[in-house]
Amino acid sequence: MTKSYNHPKGLMALFFTEMWERFSYYGMRALLVLYLTSTLISGGMGMGRSNALEIYAVFTGLVYLTPLLGGLLADKYLGQRKSILIGALLMAAGQFTLAYSQVAANLPERENLLYYGLGFLIMGNGFFKPNISTIVGQLYQENDPRRDSGFTLFYMGINVGAFISPLIAGTLGEKVGWAWGFSCAGVGMLLGLGWFISQASKLGTAGLPPKRVVAKNEKPILKASDWLGIIAITVTTLILVVIFLNTWSLLGKQPRSTITTIATVIGATALLYIILSNTKGKTQWSRVAVIFVLCSFNVFFWAGFEQVGGTLNLFAREKVNLMLGNWEIPVTSFQSIGAIAIVIFAPLFSILWSGLSKIKANPNTPVKFVIGLIFLGLGFVVISLANNLANNGLLISPLWLVAVYLLHTFGELSLSPIGLSMITKLSPPKITSIMMGVWFGSTALANYFAGMLETILQRHLPGMHLFNFLVITSFSAAFVLFIISPILKKMMKGIH
Hints:
- The protein has one domain: MFS general substrate transporter like domains (Growth Hormone, Chain: A, Up-down Bundle), CATH 1.20.1250.20.
- It has about 500 residues and is mainly α.
- About 75% of the residues lie in helices and about 0% in strands.
């Protein structure tokens, strides 16, 4: 396979595709809670803090849960390329629907459009998210030492988009109008779609449908019939989301709860069956067990990290001195700190892992997770101290948040791209996208907890502040994982 900068040529095609998709997602995420809690007069939804955080929790949870479905469809029927294109179209539709929600004639119509837009984004992410990461893994041979490094570079692409989107889409949304911010995010998604289409030839045979046979001199491109299928699935999904949400709103609380329980049981049973039927031999089973163990620790990490879009976002608005001379810093701009830190430090981490690998000192995957959790805990130590100062009536310096986001970024670089790489190394070949969906499923649970933790603690541990609680859970999870890491290393059966 053709290589560029010692990595497969297709890596840069996926790098920029993911960059624009993350521009779209993080621009929207920076605005969502602020949009929900802003007054109707200012064009917002006028919701209370707890309601807004609950919507944020459910949305970010489902965003990372639907990759289970998207991974299944890609592995069994569509292939990763078609799934990515369907996801991009759905997410663009979601962003523009959110934009239109602000200019709706009345509040009920605005709320309906809000939920339609979020629904389109949830389904689009399910098609897109697991499959682009799977293609990255397909660019490398098994046990290729460049894989972790390649995923770290790919992760940098995610964060180039995450850096510029709050500055552009976030500022447009806060200072000009919410519709402008969401529309900007939609344009970003369309740019990512266009780039992926134009660069698809660099991917070789990666991401094609599972039964697609490519002749020796054939260019592995999507045919006209493929595009008709992509458009049909996209339109059908949009219609189904609208029908589902309209039906859901008519049901009472008890029927919705019953349906959710039944769907969860059916989905978990189906997922278990697929994994059971496609995992063969002691080696594969041992590696799959490691995936599930590390996914459980992934929940601890992201439940803390994803406070960035909820409580940390509101903390910045309420307790940080935003005045820099005569200029007021947009709250959403803080969302760019972690992203620019990743753009700066991801190449260094990539060089670090590659260098340590050459001298046989590269930490194994579980130990890298431990390092990530330690950095997360240190970040919450800092924000806990800052919160104590703010509770005395002071508006704290923005540098406190800068320190928190830097520490969390080091944790993210130690865990998240390594987790993506781990899935592609340890998964049984026939269900790699499905197992990527399992990984994002654990992130879904974490995102739900991230939005609900404050409410849960207020109800059950009223004396415990959220930030202090996350200090305890982060360090405790790191300690437990460190103790069992030698066992997990053995269970990985030669995969580092």
